[in-house]
Amino acid sequence: MRWWDLEQVIAIEIQVFGPTAWSPESFWGELARADRYYVVADDGVVQAYGGLWIAAPDADVQTIAVAPGAQGRGLGRRVLDHLLEHARQDGCRRIQLEVRADNDAAIRLYENAGFGRVRVRQRYYPDLSDALVMGLDL
């Protein structure tokens, strides 16, 4: 992900996450950090994106989103697989993430990739919904 992708990324962010969407400033801040890694999937237009926080031997999936019109085509899994491989190459041995406890599609994606359920973080999101913490040994 580069700065010139942000307009399209933010449009997807708003469509997918609504009132809990990251601000443009949040994305700029993430891209400026050396311990972050962000990627986009595009075919001339950004269709999906994802990012990591790398603190080897641990990593944390910061976000994954797929444009609503591109969902159901395996892009989320491709982005996730790419992030997992990048974390391995950077020497990470464990990875975790938080996902809305009511986001069944995302939970299935992560479970199919080998993630297990670790715990629930109650009232984690700004709208006070719970997050499910999931982890994977790389």
Provide a descriptive summary of the structure in words.
With 138 residues, the chain is α+β, with helices and mostly antiparallel strands. It has one domain (3-137): Gcn5-related N-acetyltransferase (GNAT) (Aminopeptidase). Helix content is 33%, strand content 33%. The chain contains four helices and six strands. It has helices at residues 6-17, 24-32, 75-89, 104-112, and strands at 36-42, 46-55, 58-66, 94-100, 116-121, 131-137. The protein has a six-stranded mixed β-sheet with strand order 1-2-3-4-6-5, sandwiched between helices. The protein starts with 5 loop residues before the first helix and ends with a strand. The model has no long low-confidence stretch (mean pLDDT 96).
CATH topology category name:
Aminopeptidase
Q: Domains counted in the coordinates: how many?
A: 1
Question: What low-confidence regions span 5 or more consecutive residues with pLDDT below 50?
Answer: none
- Largest sheet, strands/sense/barrel: 6 strands, mixed
Instruction: Provide a count of the helices.
Output: 4
Supply the CATH superfamily name.
Gcn5-related N-acetyltransferase (GNAT)
SSE ordering? HHEEEHEHEE
Q: What's the CATH first level?
A: Alpha Beta
How much is the average pLDDT?
96
In the CATH hierarchy, what is the architecture at level 2? Answer: 3-Layer(aba) Sandwich
What is the C-alpha radius of gyration, as a whole number of Å? Answer: 14 Å
| Helix proportion | 25-40%
Strand tally is 6
Shape field: globular
Strand order of the largest sheet: 1-2-3-4-6-5
Distance between the termini: 23 Å
Estimated share of beta-strand residues: 25-35%
* SS class: alpha+beta
